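Bug report

Summary: structure tokens for stizolobate synthase differ between web form and batch submission.
Environment: batch mode, default settings.
Steps: 1) Submit the sequence below via batch. 2) Compare with the web form result.

Sequence submitted:
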Amino acid sequence: MGADKINQTFYLSHGSPTLSIDDSLPARHFLQNWKEKIFDQKPKSILIISGHWETNEPTVNSVDVSDTIYDFYGFPAPMYKLKYPAPGAPDLAKRVQEILTTSGIKRVHIDKKRGLDHGAWVPLMLMYPEANIPVCQLSIQMNKDATYHYNMGRALAPLKEEGVLIIGSGSATHNLRDLRWGAKDEEVVPWAGEFDKWLEDALISGRHEDVNNFLQKAPHARKAHPSPDHFYPLHVALGAAGETTKAELIHRSWSLGTLSYASYKFTTPN
């Protein structure tokens, strides 16, 4: 397996579903340039953790071909015609189930029907438009905390040796009740900017404990994440990279004053 080994995990802020069609969003161009500028290694398969699949116990999807789930409402009609028919990854789903069960999580489920929600297919459609890499999605648990998700990531780390690309997909800030519709692209509301900067500093300094205890440590934590659903995917990706990982900010842009598209690469030292 040596040659296939992947040394990085990623956390991507997927922002609004309009990322799928809106060319004015800088994050769209960042993802379209993925293979040229960010990550040119072709993974054997992809494990993606999206903020849009919540279950009480960890669940992975195991399908032959991924359905495209339109889990958003009131958006432009062309978005509901987009398809991302990536092959599923039933072997990877089984492997994830096995690893998490061995790590001490009593029940890990396999869902044989669910496709990919927009937290998964929108970024992947831009990164890997050929839809030729098998994808498996893993759910988050809202009844658990950040440390639990970090430890889940730690358990999944061996998958990198097997050529699996682990991606957390969420949003570095995610308060949909406080979007500023008139804001220009780079106008940032202070609380959002302060949380975003704190996160960058904590990740680059390797303060994983602070990131896991963000509710106590970060400024405006509950304002940035009234619900942690779009933050937990970061904890999984960070845990999978390991305690000594070097974090790198690979993209930052803003939308609607409070929505950060900050994205990170976590490299495991050799």
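Above is the batch result. After comparison, the two runs are identical; trailing whitespace caused the diff. The chain has one domain: 8-267. The mean pLDDT is 96.
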